[in-house]
Design brief:
Layout: E1 16-23, E2 48-53, E3 64-65, E4 78-79, E5 87-92, E6 95-96, H1 106-118, E7 129-147, E8 150-168, E9 189-194, H2 200-231, E10 247-250, E11 253-258, H3 260-272, E12 282-298, E13 303-320, E14 326-335, H4 344-363, E15 369-376, H5 379-389, E16 426-430, E17 436-437, E18 440-441, E19 458-462, E20 465-466, E21 486-487, E22 495-496, E23 500-505, H6 511-524, E24 529-536, E25 569-576, E26 582-585, E27 588-592, E28 601-614, E29 621-637, H7 651-654
Parallel strand pairs: 2-11, 10-13, 15-24, 23-29
Antiparallel strand pairs: 1-28, 3-14, 4-13, 5-6, 5-10, 7-8, 7-12, 8-9, 12-13, 13-14, 15-29, 16-19, 16-23, 17-18, 19-20, 21-22, 24-25, 25-26, 27-29, 28-29
């Protein structure tokens, strides 16, 4: 999976997450690999290769997604940088090789030639650029949406989005990392839409216009930054940018070819199944597949052309409980191509399970108040670690001009280096280089980040103590160089972000042993039951609801607002001490939970679950984590007025 984000259309979709249930060992192959066999000689040409998606899905797999406050489709890609089909040339860490950028590639030539010209820019008595980077996302996308057996939309789209960085000054002090008197980050990256035709003059003209405006803004920002620093007592600060070795990757381009009729029939037949379920008020399907040829050139000598490909099938359904509370559920299937999506029969069986889960949720009682042990099981644990740790593990400097910040717990962990944040049995690292965990697709997989730096494994937590941070090329006081985690969303400036975050615990227990630990802990507190949570919503107040912004079904039904560290439980069960039986409940939220809660973990599982996420404000990523039992947490009923149910049933329910 690349550090690149979903690419269908210029307006970015709302945030979306998908989950994969836990598994103790290898699963069957779940996505088909692309047939991209190439001869060595082919790689020195500007060759186009078609990625053809065949009519019927062959692979099998299930992704069960929670409502990360949005069930709008998002799309993931697998960055195909395997040695089997690319010619890799590195000028990195002292290893020197040579290759020519394909002259027949018009985009490459336009970027390279305009980059040379840009490095000569200079306004009178002002700084000239010392670093420039150009990126292009050349994207072809196919998308189907369907509802209750009808195709709502089916189309293909092509776009070229240009993103640039112009830095003036020097590595130590430049126009980045400055808030300014206006209160916002100033003057570094810009983006523009390029022509999709391979017209050299047209491409250069569009690149020139965007760069010219950005350079003018860059010199103005640096001037303001210097003036601000002269008038302020700026504390010891890190350099603004770190140097990196040059990298050259030349991969053949891919084209997108789709059998649209076959895949429309696939989508139509799946969505039609929801007409069988009277208790479901709304159900939607979205199928997205695409190919992206990505370009990166910079003034340090890096030259990259590589591909992202992928497919995502997203199925969402929602309804209302008798008291009016919204409930929803979803399925998500990720693959490197459409051929890797599960067979029709498999998806229909999963839809049946989804409908049954929704029926149970609608009948479940509301949990009033609870204080006691909580077992986070399945994908809920990966979601918990994502929401409490992911942002804080990313090294981010405090910009010049920023005021005192009221940070949420866990959003900036660098000050806790060397301190214990988890039990001593825990080990955490980030390694984006593997495309799968066992047989599960990893959305956060990539080989090179968005600053052209090779991805690295980074040790983050060792024996419970914070030992490192994931870094882009923007240094912090403690870390001076990148470890290949500079990633961007759309046209934004690359920043530190997780790729594939692995959480491991020594002495892990089996599911039955963990359940017994939960029961024992609840009994020791004099409780009749403990709680087991298997899915969470996203952070409340940070994303959209079901169906996009202002959507109809927000999972968990949280009251919203800023400051919520962990989303509401959306799949939660009472586990009774007397006999171990489980009873679903709904409509509750955490009263207090933050990073310190992780220190109260008293047991962990041996099997790990994968949680994939893409869209919104963070790059695509994966979190792999075992189940954990936390000694004590507080949950309470969500105090929120609910909408009345519709006066009439949905048409498909009335016709039965």
């Amino acid at each position: 999976m690349s550090s690149f984000q979903p690419f269908w259309g210029i307006p970015r979709p709302p945030s979306f997450e998908g989950a994969v249930p836990p598994h103790p060992g290898p699963l069957p192959q779940r996505e088909g690999d692309m047939d991209c066999s190439l001869h060595h000689s082919d790689l020195h040409e500007s060759t186009h290769h078609s990625l053809r998606f065949h009519p019927l899905p062959k692979g099998e797999g299930r992704g069960e997604g929670e409502e990360h406050a949005s069930v709008s489709t998002a799309f993931l890609f697998h960055r195909a940088l395997g040695l089997a089909f690319l010619h890799l040339i590195l000028l990195f860490s002292g290893l020197a090789f040579a290759d020519e950028v394909p002259e027949s590639d018009v985009v490459f030539r336009a970027l390279s030639d305009e980059l040379k010209r840009t490095m000569t820019l200079r306004l009178a008595d002002l700084d000239k650029p010392y670093f420039v980077q150009y990126s292009v996302d050349d994207t072809a996308t196919y998308r189907i949406t369907a509802s209750y057996g009808s195709i709502v939309n089916s189309d293909q789209n092509r776009s070229r989005i240009f993103q640039s960085q112009v830095r003036v000054g020097a590595y130590d002090l430049d126009n980045s990392n400055f808030v300014g008197r206006g209160g916002g980050q100033r003057g570094l990256s810009g983006s523009a839409e390029l022509p999709v035709d391979d017209d050299y003059a047209g491409l250069r003209h569009a690149i020139w216009l965007a760069t010219d405006a950005q350079y003018k803004d860059a010199v103005e920002t640096l001037t303001q930054k210097r003036a601000y620093m002269k008038d302020r007592n700026v504390q010891e600060r890190a350099a603004d940018f770190a140097q990196a070795g040059a990298v050259t990757v030349i991969q053949p381009r891919l084209n997108l070819s789709i059998d649209s009729k076959a895949w429309e029939d696939y989508a139509r037949r799946i969505s039609a199944r929801f007409a069988s379920y009277r208790h479901i008020q709304s159900a939607d399907l979205s199928l997205v597949a695409g190919v992206e040829n990505r370009y990166l050139v910079n003034s340090e000598g890096s030259r990259l052309r590589y591909t992202d490909t992928g497919a995502l099938l997203r199925i969402s359904a929602g309804s209302q409980a008798p008291d009016g509370q919204r409930v929803a559920d979803s399925l998500a299937y990720y693959a490197s191509s459409l051929e890797g999506l599960p067979a029709l029969e498999k998806v229909l069986a999963d839809v049946e399970e989804l409908a049954q889960r929704l029926a149970s949720m609608l009948k479940a009682p509301v949990l009033e108040d609870y204080t006691g042990p909580v077992l986070f099981d399945g994908v809920a644990t990966a979601q918990l670690f994502r929401q409490l740790l992911a942002a804080g593990l990313a090294g981010q400097p405090e910009p010049v001009g920023s005021q005192r910040r009221a940070l949420q717990s866990g959003d900036d962990l660098e000050t806790r280096l060397g301190k214990r944040i988890l039990p001593t049995t825990f080990h955490i690292y980030d390694d984006p280089r593997n495309r799968k965990f066992q047989d599960t697709f990893l959305a956060g997989h990539y080989q090179f980040d968005d600053e052209g730096v090779p991805a690295e494994r980074v040790e983050l937590v060792v024996e419970g103590k914070l030992d490192g941070m994931i870094m882009s090329r923007t240094p912090t006081k403690q870390f001076a160089k990148s470890n290949g985690h500079g990633r961007r969303v759309g046209g934004e400036t690359p920043r530190s972000a997780i790729g594939c975050l692995y959480i491991e615990a020594a002495k892990g227990l089996s599911p039955d042993e963990l359940k017994k630990e939960l029961i024992d802990a609840a009994e020791a507190e004099g409780l009749k039951f403990g709680l087991r949570i298997t899915a969470l919503s996203g952070r409340v107040g940070g994303t959209a609801g079901f169906g996009g912004p202002g959507g109809r079904f927000g999972r968990g039904g949280g009251r919203g607002g800023a400051g919520r560290l962990v989303g509401d439980p959306i799949s939660i069960y009472k586990v009774y001490v007397a006999d171990g039986r489980e009873e679903p409940v709904r409509g509750c939220e955490f009263s207090a939970i933050d990073l310190r809660s992780l220190r109260r973990i008293i047991a962990a599982g041996s099997a790990q679950s994968v949680h994939n996420s893409a869209g919104g404000t963070a790059p695509a990523s994966s979190v792999i984590a075992p189940a954990v039992l936390i000694e004590e947490l507080e949950l309470s009923r969500i105090r929120q007025e609910a909408e009345k149910k519709p006066i009439l049933e949905a048409p498909h329910a009335r016709s039965r």
